[in-house]
User: Which sequence fits this backbone?
């Protein structure tokens, strides 16, 4: 199981029946593959749809039916389409129960950076700032480190996406919860030692007496 | 209130160099492709483009960027178009990045006669720079001002002879709100149908907002 | 021809082809009967419809199809329905070319009062404040005086509907235009003398050298 | 995301005395009549009602007023209901009058996570009293704050099993925006149809906003 699958599987265990969920482009999209059995969630695509699966049957792609990454999708029975103002009324208004976003950095205060690297790369924030401001829970799904540079840092060196604290950070090594006291290590990936998690983090983590192994919902 | 149908070329001739344009679409989905091509053919220059993104170099708004028609962009995302990024880095295009929900609300405010909206989005980020901040009941909000444009170039699914519009699935996106926010609204529908074919409850943009319809290509 | 018909006929001559028009409840509604030949206008009802006629054919009334006064209407081919936020986006956003409203008073600065009589009667402003704030042209259609009390007054004694100046005042005696200089008498009703108009007004009117008779579009 | 259908009586039992309710409708058109009757039958008290008007004494929201269920009203117009006017004059009901477009925007803001909107409506009138005023680009606007309620009681035309809604003609009015602005959204549809019967582009309120559907009367 590669890093991305570990992350996606663990994030999927945060889903609860009946939730409206927004998955960011890239890694977060994988979460849809691992929705736990017996749980039914609705996915929102911020370009204007609730209720879809990806990809559509081969040869049945419709140019007017894509996700926020531009990929073809299929609408499910019960799907609803709407314009961008309505889509972000859903997001900003707290109607999205959970948003899963990738990140370049998260810092000790739980702030996220994911939309620009000054002087290098400025794709833009798209819907990320609204999602972090408005979704009931925001889960960061990211690899623990990038090119051996920690992505969990004491203070963001990249421009923040929001002043709001995210709810949970899931990496291929650990589940970490930002709290008033700081970043608390909640779970470690199967076979991963606490020391390894701390070594890969650029910020102090609070380590409870017990750090259980994360479930990956494989049973 | 019948509209007359004009060609994409005639529409492009109405749009002067230097004009500000809202263009519907999300990564090219729901963008008025024939209007965009007509602007490229006419060699339009110094346009200001307001829209979600600049799509890809060969698709949607990206074709205007690629052809050198654009001086300014206001969008939420340009990551899919390396040309926009290159021209921005070179200082050849002025890009203002706006959170997608804020962009939608600013356009809606521009069309709805509001002086602006108060949003929590962007508080504590670069987006807040130079903006008025207000506290309402203990929460901090940015005042985001309305956006309007000289022209809105929209893609619709059906238009009837009165200009009433429908949209298809995710091709609606910014089109319905842009219809309120420009002095001249030019719509490229997939199909034009007789008045009465679109029932009142299916109309998503009332025809009174539409200035011109692009007709069937000759 | 009674006072109301004179007013409605004269207001109707302000209509231009292609306009979107909102007619207030009561007297203004009559304007729809006198749309000049060769002119096509669309009427908006602020409860959520563009494109209607009133009343519907006998026995064909639909409980889900009424105007802002609660009366049954018929949708015309090309009608569009929408919710209240959209309806007032049309109104406040300047998409309504002309609004015709009744009034309790209009004063020398062109301000209108039409929504309450303190201590007596408080129906509420409904959509009137938004219409006066947002419509491109606001036409007041009212009788020149009420129970021999002038309705055109120097300064409103009733709470104003808006700080904005209305575009035109049409009574059964006169057409009056509020300007930077004050209220200018533009037209008099057939057979009505200027002195009569001035006598019935509680504010100073500016009287040009010529005051033509108003047309009532009867030819 | 299937909803289960409950009765109007069961819904009324969920709504405690003293609750704030947004109720859709315009002079009774598009109001949830069975829900209103169930609240009257239950003898609800001290309700706060947010809606366009109080209709007529025997119709729509007016039935709640007449039955003494209501302590507070926030509406744009009460002129059609003499009982509301009488109770207001007697100090038995607290009435806040709000311009209709401002009421719509405040409800929309409450549902869309905005801290408020800036509107020119009401500047220079009683409506401006006690409100923050801002100048944006030379124009004066009132800051109007968001409105939310504990419950929204809505009338729809069709609902599917997922709660997706359609509306009919002028019966939509405040219903679609109220669906965003309450903690619990209870919908009384004319008809319930199987999931898939309402196509995605015809849905005017996504089912995710709906908490309960009122089913067929037994």
Assistant:
């Amino acid at each position: 199981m590669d890093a991305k699958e570990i992350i996606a599987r663990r994030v999927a265990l945060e889903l609860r029946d009946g939730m409206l969920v927004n998955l960011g482009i890239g890694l977060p999209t994988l979460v849809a593959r691992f929705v736990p059995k017996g749980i039914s969630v609705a996915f929102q695509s911020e370009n204007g749809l609730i209720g879809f699966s990806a990809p559509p049957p081969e040869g049945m792609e419709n140019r007017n039916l894509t996700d926020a990454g531009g990929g073809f999708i299929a609408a499910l029975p019960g799907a609803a389409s709407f314009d961008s103002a309505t889509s972000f009324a859903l997001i900003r208004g707290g109607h999205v129960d959970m948003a899963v976003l990738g990140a370049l950095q998260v810092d000790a205060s739980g702030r996220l950076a994911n939309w620009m690297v000054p002087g290098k790369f400025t794709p833009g924030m798209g819907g990320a700032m609204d999602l972090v401001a408005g979704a009931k829970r925001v889960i960061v799904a990211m690899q623990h480190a990038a090119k051996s540079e920690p992505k969990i840092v004491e203070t963001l060196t990249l421009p923040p996406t929001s002043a709001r604290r995210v709810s949970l950070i899931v990496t291929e090594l650990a589940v970490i919860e930002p709290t008033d006291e700081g970043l608390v290590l909640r779970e470690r990936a199967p076979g991963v030692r606490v020391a390894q998690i701390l070594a890969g983090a650029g910020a102090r983590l609070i380590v409870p007496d017990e750090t259980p192994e994360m479930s990956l919902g494989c049973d | 209130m019948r509209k007359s149908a004009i060609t994409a070329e005639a529409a492009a001739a109405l749009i002067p160099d230097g004009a500000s344009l809202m263009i519907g679409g999300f990564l090219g989905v729901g963008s008025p492709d024939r209007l965009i091509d007509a602007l490229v053919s006419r060699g339009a220059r110094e346009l200001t483009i307001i829209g979600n993104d600049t799509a890809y170099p060969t698709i949607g708004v990206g074709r205007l960027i690629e052809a050198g028609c654009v001086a300014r962009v206001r969008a939420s995302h340009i990551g899919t178009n390396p040309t926009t990024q290159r021209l921005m880095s070179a200082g050849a295009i002025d890009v203002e990045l706006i959170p997608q929900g804020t962009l939608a609300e600013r356009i809606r405010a521009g069309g709805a006669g509001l002086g602006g909206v108060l949003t929590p989005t962007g508080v504590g980020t670069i987006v807040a720079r130079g903006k008025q901040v207000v506290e309402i009941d203990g929460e901090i909000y940015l005042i985001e001002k309305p956006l309007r444009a000289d022209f809105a170039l929209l893609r619709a699914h059906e238009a009837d002879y009165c200009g009433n519009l429908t949209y298809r699935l995710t091709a609606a996106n910014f089109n319905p709100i842009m219809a309120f926010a420009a002095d001249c609204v030019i719509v490229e529908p997939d199909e034009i149908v007789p008045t009465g074919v679109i029932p009142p409850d299916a109309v998503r943009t009332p025809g009174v907002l539409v200035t011109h319809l692009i007709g069937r290509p000759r």
Residues 3-206 of chain C form a domain with the Glutaconate Coenzyme A-transferase fold (CATH 3.40.1080.10).
